[in-house]
Amino acid sequence: MEINTASFGEQMELVTITEPKFKTVSLMCMLLFPVIPERNAAYALAASLLTNSCRKYPDYAAMTVKLDTMYGASLTSSMSINGNAMQIVLNGSTIASRYALAGEDLSSDLTQLMCDCILDPNARDGAFNETAFRIEHKDLLDAIQTEINDKRTYALVRARRIAYEGESVAYPVHGTKEDVEKLTKENVYEAYKEILRRAVYRFYYVGPDTPVGLAEQFRTAFKDVERCPEPLQFFVPSPIKETPAEVTEPMDVTQSKLVMVFKVKERNMEAFRLFSALFGGTPFSLLFTNVREKESLCYYCASHIIAGKLSLVVESGVELANAERTKEAVLEQLAALQRGELSDELLENARLAMIDSLRSYGDTPIFCIRAQLEKFYTGDPADIEERIQRYLALTKEQIVEVANALKLDTVYLMQQGGAAE
Amino acid sequence: MTETIVSRQTGEKCLHVTHKTGLEIYIMEMEGYRSSFALFGTKYGSINTRFRLRGEEDYAEVPEGIAHYLEHKLFENEDCDAFAKYARTGASANAYTSFDRTAYLFGCTENFNASLEILLDFVQDPYFTEENVEKERGIIDQEIRMNDDEPGWQVFFNMLKAMYHVHPVRIDIAGSTDSIQEITPELLYRCYNTFYNLHNMVLSVAGNVKADEVLAICDRLLKPCEDMGLEEYFPEEPDTVVQPYVEANMQVGAPLFNLGFKLRPMEGKELLRAELMSSILLEAILGPSTKLYNNMLEEGLINSEFDADSPFAGSGYFCLTCGGESQQPEVVRDRIIAELRRVQAEGFDPEVFERIKRVHYGNMIRGLSNVETNASNMLNAFMSKVGPFDCIDILAEITYEDAIRFLREALDTDKAVLSVVRSQEV
């Protein structure tokens, strides 16, 4: 695997990852800029308008035909918040040219299509195309409206909004219904221009070979873009509440959802991740073996971390009558770790799982990109092998330190049997 | 028996071994990869509720959801659970039960052989007691309740219930909170001894593996067993649907719908060919490049969630489905049926057919890059009674004329079911 980085403008970088074994070509374009919560809706709509049509392929049908002829290439956009940064990700993928039946140069096609979408959208005279705008506008309203459909995700979203109240990350990533209703094809076009101007550009290309002059191609394409990139912060610890917020919301569901958010102030990401793995991130973790298997309280009780906010989230689907006991059981497991009650076996097994997972990164394009993204977010040039060495060096004491640093900040309960407001 | 199977289209190859114990083994060595993936599966899922073995007069009938219950319980051996054993190798393990299969799997980059030993060992070593079976009931009850709150799950199963009169595909994979109360250690052993016979099973392995080492482990750990002459019973399913429309109320942000068309069941290569043609046809008639899709999108009848799914098929069932979100699902249904009838009568542009065939080819090439996909595809092919590369080979052979003939002969738009989930009006 060969990795190269090249700049193609101010705060514009291309990372190419050449891995001969892959049969696909992937191009990810990340546009990152500081969050302005009240602009989230406009940015979200602009992002979705970029990948569903462009001037050359001016509607959904034309874009689909283009992607079909590229052997079912995919082109999607998504938006998320990391630290104080809004991330718009445009993701494209197709098969490697050597598998093209008529010898087409698919990586060039994909690169050109991505540039067309970003730089030459389906717009004129300072406004997006009316029909395209109307379709995406409805789509965004529907997406906000149907957030409630997936109860597990909805509970997590609700808990995050309470845990980070007052912070930019608490604001809905796609804005609110009211925000979306105010959008017009003109002000969304303005938002699109803002994205181009404000963003740091990170492009990642993964394929069995890298086209010659790819960075130059991007440099030429993006040379006339007005630029004023803003500084980003990916680690923005959230203030810890003195008394944990406890919020219960009744809802018309048959299973209650419990979400607990813990926060820490200092970061040692490897220790934090290893802690989560052994606490609730694996099927041999303390939460799985005790809360699920020994006490049979739930089908899932798992933890994950939100790196940019230095938070650990525990989630579980439980019978209402068991919700309080589940919460106690989670806190008991944490208390035991805080007292240093951590077996060598559990520590070693969690370490092994983390390392095994890291070693598989080179086998899929998306994980190849993720490894490079980690360097960008942390500013830490450590490669996978160095990160593995750090996991190997972690001690039991460092894990116990994480346990003691964790403070319960938020407890959210979606309560079954109630009527939603 | 040992054979190397090579794809005519891509040159990809795998090793197929019929082990002396009766187990079918598929191995794909993937050069340059660090990770490996293994699945050990049995042809046993939620639909296999009635069966008998050679020499038995009557068919046994077991509670709904027992295959899934068994999957949960098999992880627990007498000494410790399988997850604890995998924890020592670093592998990431899991299992799943579907309508017609159960599979135990793991992925790893190190210690593959040790993890494979764990897999072969625990799946062949059941340990069910009153106590451990009882303990699992609460966990599975919560899994069922979790699915009860999933509108996407409910809208799909309601469609199956409205489509199939008696075929057990209408049963929820995990059963119900009532049916799981009837499950006992004795019943679990009965099902285990019937379906976890190596003659009914497959091992599929791909990635950074060496075939001779995999086979040596199999020789050592697979327990010889006799083919017990398993016979399954499926009640005769009428050719009609139960009801054309079904609606349920749940708290949702917008109504969800699933539209299905009941087709004659098929199997083996005939089914694979029909599935491929169906996928291409649905995409060509209902997909995002069509006038119908774009008109409905522009009129606000559907949003981008609308999708024509892959065909849904197995032993004794086969249906085409599509679905999404709409305030007017009945109007969407009527438009789709009208368009299907129009295309049945008039056909469509053969170039569209070729374009979408190319999309499927691209999707298959993508899969070949992925260790987990390759292992899963080999297992799925075994379950479907086809070869591991038949899919891409058959795709190359299908013509527009085949597809349009299939559409005219196999699809009866009168056998449609619309399932809707919407919030209760107050």
Walk me through what this model shows.
The complex is a heterodimer of chains A (421) and B (426). With 421 residues, chain A is of the alpha+beta class. Chain A folds into two domains: 2-222, 2-Layer Sandwich (Cytochrome Bc1 Complex, Chain A, domain 1); 245-415, Metalloenzyme, LuxS/M16 peptidase-like (Cytochrome Bc1 Complex, Chain A, domain 1, 2-Layer Sandwich). Chain A contains 15 helices and 13 strands. In chain A, the strands form three sheets. A six-stranded mixed sheet of chain A has the order 1-2-8-3-5-4, with helices on both faces. A five-stranded mixed sheet of chain A has the order 9-13-10-12-11, with helices on both faces. In chain A, a hairpin with a 4-residue loop joins β11 (298-306) and β12. The N and C termini of chain A lie far apart (54 Å). The model of chain A has no long low-confidence stretch (mean pLDDT 95). The longest helix of chain B is centred in the N-terminal third of the chain and has 19 residues, at 130-148. Chain B is built from 14 helices and 16 strands. In chain B, β7 (92-97) and β8 form a beta hairpin. Chain B has two domains: 2-232, 2-Layer Sandwich (Cytochrome Bc1 Complex, Chain A, domain 1), CATH 3.30.830; 245-422, Cytochrome Bc1 Complex, Chain A, domain 1, CATH 3.30.830.10. Chain B is globular, with a radius of gyration of 23 Å. Classes of the chains: A alpha+beta (421), B alpha+beta (426). Chains A and B meet through α2, β5, α4, α10 and β11 of A and α2, β7, α4, α9 and α11 of B.
Summarize the structure.
The complex is a heterodimer of chains A (421) and B (426). Chain A is of the alpha+beta class.
Mean pLDDT of chain B: 96
What's the number of helices of chain B?
Answer: 14
- The CATH homologous superfamily of the largest domain in chain A is named Metalloenzyme, LuxS/M16 peptidase-like
Q: In angstroms, what is the radius of gyration of chain A?
A: 23 Å
SS-based class of chain A: alpha+beta
Q: Tell me roughly what share of residues is in helical segments of chain A.
A: 40-55%
The structure class of chain B reads alpha+beta
Main sheet makeup of chain B: 7 strands, mixed
Mean pLDDT of chain A: 95
Largest protein-protein interface: A-B, 68 and 73 residues
Tell me the name of the CATH homologous superfamily of the largest domain in chain B: Metalloenzyme, LuxS/M16 peptidase-like
